[in-house]
TrEMBL record:
CDD domains: RRM_like_XS (cd12266). Residues 106-121 have a biased composition (Basic and acidic residues). Pfam families: XS, zf-XS. Residues 502-585 form a coiled coil. Keywords: Coiled coil, RNA-mediated gene silencing. It comes from the Eukaryota. Residues 45-88, 154-198 form the Zinc finger-XS domain. Residues 7-26 have a biased composition (Acidic residues). The lineage of its organism: Eukaryota, Viridiplantae, Streptophyta, Embryophyta, Tracheophyta. InterPro entries: FDM1-5/IDN2 (IPR045177), XS_domain (IPR005380), XS_domain_sf (IPR038588), Znf-XS_domain (IPR005381). It comes from Populus deltoides. Residues 228-339 form the XS domain. This is Protein INVOLVED IN DE NOVO 2-like.
Length: 602
């Protein structure tokens, strides 16, 4: 465990808390309380906020969870890291099958993309010829590829963009990526050159590629057992460093940088020398730190062997001989890590114990993971590239269609403009012709008016005499009109009288009509009365015949009937007199009406 990691865990929580949180989260994931799998290919992180949550592929989610779980940032809490470590464990143990089934999509052979080759106007045979030619140049050494045992360069990339520190695998991946690129920005020759570089690396530099796996690894495996437990990061121990007592009674010594520079000059390349201090001051011991990679292990072993050759190694230091002089150095191992002294305490703070086989396996896992992630990225980019090409083709088709429509519209517009201009020109010409025609007509009218003017002047004298005659006639007509006006007034008065007579006649006709209705009613009443009289007379005759019987009641009824009969006869006489009066009045009204009609007609 590294020193910075140890400080972060001390600040956020203990190892036991981390383990407890991790186990609790893992159990929740196993029980299905937290949802991880969305579909066969997509997953979600249940420990990220809802706003930031997104759909991951299996590998992307594994990488995300591992990154958060192993984060050194103090912004990440202990529980958050433990939750993500539990998610890593759950993904690797329980969802491994799902990760395997989510196959990458979009793996295609760029050389089979005929349309792409056609776009570059280069045939497959020309690509092959260019590739063979570049391969021969590489074999003949015309281009520098290998810089050292560990580093390589790409001879076909521009100098400004060239990366000169590729390891074998990185350069192989770079050449593969460019050679099989679907981008139109890459020329055919550029792709052929990089494919030739792939061929050269795989055929001619394969041994260099295998040896470029961390330098010194083979040598270390031959000189060290893979099960030897070393302190990692690779660390050396230096003891019996010269010290002196200062004025305050504490021990002091040379700085670590001076000893580091001395070791560098001998070719051991340490990154740091850290002197160890205690309550007495400089303890006379120091920890020598090397790089974490295989060259760092090589330097550490070389450092140890150099001091062993000088009889100043670990074995000599712990030998029970007398007083020792000089500096003793060796590589820190498990016994040093577990020792109960200042060295062991410091080693436990800055690292942990690992075997070479563990590191090889871890490196292999990281390498596989890196290759897997990069492959996934390439596949994703290929899919994205295909989508972009499809969109580009669709956009091009749409653009061509729009251009054609635009040309049609432009042609129609030009045709319409031409028609409008032709129509305007014809209309203008017609207006000019009409103007000339009207001008000629006006001139002829002008001449005609001038002729009429002269004629009017001639007639003016004649009109004077005619005017006098006319004035005389007007005076006569005025007299005649005055008499006519008087006659009109008389006629108007007569008309008014006629209207009055008509109204009177109408009113009288209405009165006569009403009288006729009354007469009809009276006639009906007269007839009814005559019938009643006849009935009473009949009853009276019957009573007279019954009178001989001498019934008093009958006599009394007969008297009543006689009395009633007389009354009815009196009423009948009155009605006849009234009827005669009405008849006389009607005749008189008819006579008046006839007189009025005659007067109206006159």
């Amino acid at each position: 465990m590294e020193h910075s990691s140890d400080e972060e865990i001390d600040a956020s929580g203990s190892d036991s808390e981390m383990d407890e949180y991790e186990n609790e989260a893992y159990e929740e994931l196993k029980d299905g309380k937290l949802r991880v799998k969305i579909s066969d290919e997509t997953f979600a992180c249940p420990f990220c906020p809802q706003k930031k949550r997104q759909a991951y592929l299996y590998k992307d989610l594994l990488q995300h969870a591992s990154g958060v779980g192993k984060s050194r940032s103090q912004k990440r809490s202990t529980k958050e890291k433990a939750n993500h470590l539990a998610l890593v464990k759950y993904l690797e143990k329980d969802l491994t099958a799902a990760g395997r089934t989510s196959k990458p999509v979009g793996e295609t052979d760029p050389h089979s993309d005929c349309s792409h080759v056609e776009k570059m106007d280069v045939s497959q045979s020309e690509m092959d010829n260019c590739e063979d030619k570049s391969y021969e140049e590489l074999k003949n050494g015309n281009h520098q590829v290998k810089i050292s045992d560990e580093t390589f360069t790409c001879p076909y990339c521009p100098t400004k963009k060239r990366k000169r520190d590729y390891v074998y695998q990185d350069l192989l991946q770079h050449a593969n990526g460019v050679g099989k690129s679907l981008s139109e920005k890459r020329t055919a020759k550029e792709k052929a050159d990089h494919l030739a570089l792939v061929k050269y690396l795989e055929k001619d530099l394969a041994a260099a590629g295998s040896s470029s796996k961390p330098a010194g690894k083979t040598e270390n495996l031959s000189s060290c057992s893979q099960n030897d437990k070393f302190v990692w990061p690779w660390t050396g121990i230096a003891v019996n460093l010269p010290t002196r007592r200062a004025e305050d009674g504490r021990f002091v010594g040379e700085s670590g940088s001076k000893f580091r520079d001395e070791l560098k000059s001998r070719g051991f390349n340490p990154t740091r020398v850290h002197p160890l201090w205690n309550f007495r001051g400089h303890s006379g011991t120091a920890v020598v730190e090397f790089n974490k990679d295989w060259p760092g292990l090589h330097n550490a072993i070389s450092f140890e062997k150099a001091y062993e050759a000088d009889q100043q190694g670990k074995k000599e230091w712990f030998a029970s001989s007398g007083e020792k002089s000089g500096i003793y150095c060796w590589v820190a191992r498990a016994d040093d890590y577990n020792s109960n002294n200042i060295i062991g305490e410091h080693l436990r703070k800055i690292g942990d114990v690992r075997t070479i086989s563990d590191l090889i396996e871890e490196e292999a896992r990281k390498q596989d993971k890196l290759v897997f992630n990069l492959t996934n990225v390439i596949e994703t980019k290929n899919r994205y590239l295909k989508e972009m090409e499809l969109r580009c083709s669709e956009t091009s088709a749409s653009l061509n269609k729009l251009v054609q429509e635009k040309e049609k519209l432009l042609h129609a517009y030009n045709e319409e403009i031409r028609k409008i201009q032709t129509g305007a020109r014809d209309h203008f010409q017609k207006i000019l012709n009409d103007h000339e025609k009207i001008k000629l007509q006006l001139e002829s009218h002008k001449k005609e008016l001038e002729m009429r003017g002269s004629e009017l002047e001639k007639r003016e004298a004649k009109n004077e005499s005619d005017r006098r005659t006319l004035s005389e006639e007007i005076e006569k007509n005025a007299v005649r009109n005055s008499s006519l006006e008087l006659a009109a007034l008389e006629q108007q008065k007569a008309d008014e009288d006629v209207l009055k007579l008509a109204e009177d006649q109408k009113r009288q006709k209405e009165e006569l009509h009403n009288r006729i209705i009354r007469l009809e009613k009276q006639l009906d009443a007269k007839q009814a009365l005559e019938l009643e009289i006849e009935r009473l007379r009949g009853a009276l005759n019957v009573m007279k015949h019954m009178e001989d019987d001498g019934d008093v009641e009958v006599l009394r009824k007969m008297d009543a009937i006689i009395k009633n009969l007389r009354e009815k006869e009196g009423e009948l006489n009155d009605l006849e007199a009234l009827n005669q009066t009405l008849i006389v009045r009607e005749r008189k009204s008819n006579d008046e009406l006839q007189d009025a009609r005659k007067e109206l007609i006159n």
